Amino acid sequence: MSIFGNSIFGNKAPGVGNGTKNGSTQEAADSGAPVQKSDAQWREELTPEEYHVLRQAGTERPYTGEYWDTHTEGVYQCRACGTELFTSTEKFDSHCGWPSFWAPLAEGKVRYIHDRTLGMERIEVRCAACDSHLGHVFEGEGYGTPTGQRYCINSVSLRLVAKERDSDGSQG
Ligand SMILES: [Zn+2]
Fold first, then answer.
1. Mean pLDDT, to the nearest integer, of 74-84?
2. What is the rounded average pLDDT of the residues 34-61?
3. 23 neighbors 121 (Cβ within 8 angstroms)
4. For the whole model, what pTM was predicted?
5. What distance in Å separates the CA atoms of residue 6 and residue 118, rounded to the nearest whole number?
6. One of 81, 127, 130, 152 is an active-site residue; which one?
7. What is the rounded distance in angstroms from the CA atom of residue 93 to the CA atom of residue 116?
8. Cα of 108 from ligand 1 centre, angstroms
9. Comparing C-alpha atoms, which of 168, 169, 167, 161 is closest to residue 78?
10. Is 1 a residue whose pLDDT tops 60?
11. Is 71 a residue whose pLDDT tops 70?
């Protein structure tokens, strides 16, 4: 059940393991992600900050992002490709300076990569659709969330689409 228990350390994320063209364990350009764009395209579509975080696995400074303290009801999309990744239902106040969720919107929305940079063992979280960097996921920090996990996500990787109230419900 826990992503830490087996699916990350025991298996590769969906799409990574099959059809491998080479043995590289580096950042795979061939991620199997459905949304594939050239580096030049990403640079054109994203702001420099978005590009740095989403495509270069950067991290925004804590307490500077748009959503770290947001309580608006809605759905958080990937800012790079628009895929719905998280919802306000799973968002909680971690007071860490980044928007934090205890689960993604659904399994398969994000993929996980074992990240050993900076001398730490961390699990990187990427959008499964476009392979853009979102943040990291941590477990066992004592937040008391339903999963015990904290998806620590950069605001700049997300776009909140606020839930419409008293609408005719025509949106899907
Ligand atoms: Zn995406």
1. 98
2. 97
3. no
4. 0.80
5. 23
6. 152
7. 27
8. 12
9. 161
10. no
11. yes
> Considering only the top CATH level, what class is 36-162?
mainly beta
Q: In what order do the strands lie in the sheet with 84-87?
A: 84-87, 74-78, 158-162
pLDDT tier for residue 123 given thresholds of 50, 70 and 90: very high
What's the CA-to-centroid distance between 33 and ligand 1, angstroms? 9
130 neighbors 51 (Cβ within 8 angstroms) = no
How far apart (Å, rounded) are the C-alpha atoms in residues 8 and 11? 6
Whether 127 sits among the annotated catalytic residues: the reply is no
Q: In whole angstroms, what is the distance from residue 39 CA to residue 49 CA? A: 15
Å from CA of 132 to ligand 1 middle: 6
pLDDT-derived band at 3 (thresholds 50, 70, 90) equals low
Query: 79 alpha carbon to ligand 1 midpoint, in Å?
Result: 7
Domains in the chain: boundaries:
36-162
Interior/surface letters 93-113, b for 16+ CB within 10 angstroms, e for the rest: ebeebbbbbbbbbeeebbbbb
Distance from residue 39's CA to the centre of ligand 1 (Å) = 14
